[in-house]
Amino acid sequence: VGPLETTIEGPFEAAFAAAHAAHLACIEAGALHVVTIIKIADGVAGSMTIAEKTAKWRE
Length: 59
Known about the structure:
The chain has 59 residues and is mainly alpha-helical.
């Protein structure tokens, strides 16, 4: 989680569709150039939730 990141959690297909829609929305709004960087965190035991990743800043 970082200051210039948007974190999405959920099934891969839904998360990728959301990122794709956001990317296209920038182009449709008139952006001349768009860069979308996608990081995928996953593992055998699953991955951390957004709540778990941000808990230390919410205390």
